[in-house]
Structures are given as structure tokens and as C-alpha cells.
């Protein structure tokens, strides 16, 4: 489903990152950086993630001199079971709350839902937020990190941070121009150490449908950014687009997972992942470069492996999804 | 946030239940009943729940002679970690998908999201679906059932089934008249065997805000239905509304959790719970009685304890949420 929007704009963004991301090449674009450890003064990793998300949403309101009653709705999701980081963030605000789950595709899903409330005249200001935390994700989805299990080179590294966006019906410099909501794809991949392969077909399907519905070529965009396929998933997507749709992705295509870290130096395998990977890259780096005029038309395509350990133990393959959001700078 | 809608209608509903629900007093209202076991021909409970959700969404389309391309969007959520039942249902349909999580408040959340897409002219037909399965929930949230742990009388019994609704912009006999999206509430309750106490304040806050925003008395509605507070939670809500807002809920107030089973005979403690509890009661029983003219104005308020076992192990209390949806029969 592709929708063109009339009146949905980004008022501002706010990004917070952890120590790994603050050593990466995009660190200067983030509003707040934690550099010491992964606890941020909390006692558990789960609470540490709640801390980041609360802080991102508090700070974006403070920065824009908005009170809680000025915000109609918070739309938020994360990777914790029961999206606990978002739920426990939500209880700190007297603001209506919508909880969502599409793993690392959350930020795109949230923008599409937020935009629907604004386009329908049902809300004037909506906060869309997401977070991830390397250790909560490792603990929940992979192996207890104390085991020190070796990883495959196709594995990705879950980013730590929180990202928050205020959508508004008042004209600003960055418009949400259109969106294409993803379908659940599953091509039978069940390698939990290669989420790039799991997610590439979802990114491909969504980008293809977006370009077709909007009657655009891939070259229409100054940038097309999937996230978080990593270096191997990025290559798979290029092949997949060429083979299935005869679409050649050019130099304007990149993957957020390859941009967040210094892949040559940081121990992050195939790149970054987690809902906040796209959140940090798109709402930190890309948003700020769009404000400067570096990029005018950008298609962000956050990708999610909606991976259930229970289902994979039962020998199921891993479904995935991707949502495309077209951003346009009105400078 | 309370929104009045102009153009969102229910085209049809479809409900499927399991053996416990098929022995309850509302069984005749459900479109399909499984009476034998909780597997429905699948090998695992998780797959059994996927089976129900796929079947509900396939059958509602068949019954209404709709093809996949006639549906713009599926909005779905459930109790499994990573909303796996919804994700694995989603991959069976070539339809854009939005995954949501608010535990047992899911059906109300889904209706509010679906309505926002229809009100904004972004979609013409949206399926909203949810499911729960007694054994997947027991296994994930409580104790392995083989342990035979005794339960407190305030515990509830997770319903098994799936419920599906088609929302449309074409006038029908049942209109979605308005909605109030809930805030995350947490009054410090951490008793995992008393979710009625956890959720009653969320129901109270949402009902209060709905009535205030719409300038209505509780007597405006032929029925106000929370779900799934159970018999003790229902009493707590009556007290809470009286004490906090000076609102007396009359004979028009009931809780879905007390209606689904025969509480005198079935071994279900304080009543039914699970996202499909509200789904079955509201989209089976209530919807069909509204079509007959028994009730004209109904406020449904699905309630959810957004309970994370990890957070409760870390000595946290349990947040909750409730969304109110006003249904109106146009007969």
C-alpha cells in the first residue's frame, strides 16, 4: 500500500547512542552520546534501554519547548519481549500510547502509523520512537554473552541507543512525502546469523512496489537507504533487485547497517542492526544532512527480521518486513 | 486522545474459538468452533495459534467474496513473543501488514489504527485481527502446565481463538463512531495472578477521558464493556470510577472476561483473558446482537496488562493500557 501525503512533516528528531556508536563515523550527528558502559546508571540492561528511550522523548519535548499536553500520541516499539522498553517508557508520560512491533523495521512502521493519524486530522503532533540495546538483544535472541560463542561473519551487531521524531501537521523543512507499507516475506531462510539474507527480499519487495506505485526510477532519489542488512545483505539486495525486477540500484543506494560503525576497525562483523540502527542513521545523520541541503529526496527503508526464537526452534524459517518512507527537503 | 470518526464502518467480523469457549454461554455466536483439542491439526501450540489466525482472515475474506488485492492492510497483534502468531499469519497473505502489541488491549488498538488509515483516505478496507491460545500463553507467561501449580482465585484463564474484523469506508450497519486511545498506567501492582487489579486503572482512565471528551454520561451507552478484567477486576473498576471520578457505572457495565465462560461451572478462576477474549465477545456476541437491534450504542474497552516477565523478575510493577472504541448501530 503506497500513500502520498499532503500534510505530514518532521518537526525535529533526537538521537542518543551508546559507547560503540559514539566511536563510529556518525557520532557527531547524535544529540547525546554515552561513552562509558551500557548501563547508563541503571541496574539492568533492560532498564538501561528504558532510560535511553525516556530520555530521547523527554529531551525532544524539552528542546522544542513542548509540554506533554502538546503531544497527541506516542507510537513506539523495540526488540524486548512485550516491547517492554517502550511500555516502561510509556508509563512515564501522560500521553496516549500505541505499541508496535516489527523488530528493526519499527521506525518506518511508526512513521507510517503516525502519518496516518496526522493525514486524517486525528492528531497534530505525534512522537515516533524506537530503541535497541546490544546486551538486551544478545541476551534475549542469541547466546548469553558470557559464553563467548564465536560469531559468523554474516552476523550483525545490535546498536545501542534511542531515536525519537516529532511528526506534525505544520509545515517544516522536511516533509514525509509518501510511504509504502511492507508485506511479510519469507523465502525460507532460517540462518539466525544471517539476517541480511532474511531481510533482503522484504526490502526488495517494498522498494519495487514503492517505485512502481509512485512511477519512479531508483535514480529519482538522492539516496535509498535500507537498514539494517549489513554488508552481505546489501549485496544480496542488489542482486535480488536486478534478478527479480530488473532494477539496478546505483551509487545512491546504501545500507544503514554499513554506515553506523567503522567496519574496518570495530568488532561488529557484517555491520549494525537493531531498530535504532535505522533510527540513528536516518534521524541523526540523514535528517541533519537534509537540513543542510546535502540530500533533497531520500527513501528510507528500515528492514526487520521478525525473528521468533520459539518458531526457529520449531524448525520454522524467519519472516521479514520492510517499510519505505520518502522524505523530502523543502529548503 | 479522543477522535470522532466520519467514515469508518465494520463490514463484517469472523470469530473462531477453541474447546473451552465452545462450551461457554456465547458459543453459538462464533463462526467456527474447535471442540476436540488445542492443536487444530498442527504440531505445536504456537503453530496452532497461527492456524486460527490464518483461518479467521482467510474465512472473513471468502465469506465476503474479497480477494487479497481488495484488502489494503492487515493490522494484527497477539501475545506470543515477537507477536509470532501475527507474523506467521502475515506471511500467508500478499497484503501490507502492521504488527502491533498491547497484549489483551490489542483489538481496540487495532481498530483505532485501522480507522486512522480509513479516515485519512489512505485505505478503503483494513482487516484488524488478533488471537490468543491458552497453552502458548501459559507456557510463555506462567508456569509449564505440567507442573500443575495451583492458581489464585484472582487469576484468569487465557481464551483460545482468533477474531477478525473488516473495516471499510463504505456505509454499513455498524459504524465506528469514535475512539479514545489509552495511556500507559501503572499504580504499582506487581501480582501476576491478579491482572484485573493491574488493568482496572487503565480502563478507568480511558473511560473517564472518553466520557469527558465526548461530553457524555456513562448512561449514554447501552453497554460499556471492559475486557478482560474478570470478576474481581470488574469490582475494582466500579470502585475506582466512583472514588476517582465520581462516576457510577450502572447495569449497562459488564466485563468481557466474565461473559465468555460459565464461571460457575468451568475451571477458569476469575474469568477469561487474552486478546481474543474481547475479540470473541465483542466481534462475536456483541456485533451480532447489535445487528439484530438489541444494542445500539456500545463502548468497548479492551484492556491489556503489558506484562514483561523479565521486568517483573527485576522487581518492577506491571503497566497496563486500555483503548475505548464506540460502536453505533445504524439500523
Describe the structure.
The structure is a homodimer of 331-residue chains. Chain A is α/β, with parallel strands linked by helices and 331 residues long. The first copy, chain A, has two domains: 2-168, Stage V sporulation protein AD (Peroxisomal Thiolase, Chain A, domain 1), CATH 3.40.47; 174-329, Stage V sporulation protein AD (Peroxisomal Thiolase, Chain A, domain 1), CATH 3.40.47. Chain A is built from ten helices and 15 strands. In chain A, the strands form two sheets. In chain A, strands 1, 2, 3, 4, 5, 6, 8, 9, 10, 11, 13, 14 and 15 form a 13-stranded mixed β-sheet that branches. A two-stranded parallel sheet of chain A has the order 7-12. In chain A, helix 1 links the parallel strand 2 and strand 3 (32-33). In chain A, helix 2 crosses helix 3 (84-90) and helix 6 (195-213) crosses helix 7 (230-245). Chain A is globular, with a radius of gyration of 18 Å. Chain A starts with a strand and ends with a strand. The mean pLDDT of chain A is 97. The interface between A and B is large, with 56 and 56 residues.
